[in-house]
Amino acid sequence: MADATLSDTYVAAIQHDRADVAPDATLVGVVRSPTGWFHAAVDENVPELGPPAALLDEINDVEEEFKMQGLCEEGAHNAAWDRVDFDDRYREHIDESPDARTAFESLCDRLESGESIALVCFENTDKKRCHRTILRDRLETQLADD
């Protein structure tokens, strides 16, 4: 990985100058369906590394159920994450989707060539779980194994 760094942050931290990323890091969004303002905050977006649409729909539906039962937004999000087995299903997506696998390998190559990368999504992981932390862990493991 030469002098490359790999980190992750959320878009609001970037917008408010609170992101803890290397100054030379390429801000790589990993959002399936980004908004225009998200594009403005990152250098590029790789939608193939966002969670699959069906998984996003399912977690959103379950999260709404939990909110209706009185859970706060963060609690509902994290409880829904567990109920839909988000962690394992997102890992499976990275492993089994040809487009996600290609995008993952491209990020590995870029890191191995010395490029610093910060993965960016919407969730503040101080409060909510997010797929980008799974992706960061997978990238770190892959690079350590190479």
Automatic annotation (TrEMBL):
Domain of life: Archaea
InterPro entries (UniProt xref): DUF488-N3a
Record-annotated DUF488 domain positions: 14-142
Name of the protein described by the UniProt record: DUF488 family protein
Organism name: Halosolutus amylolyticus
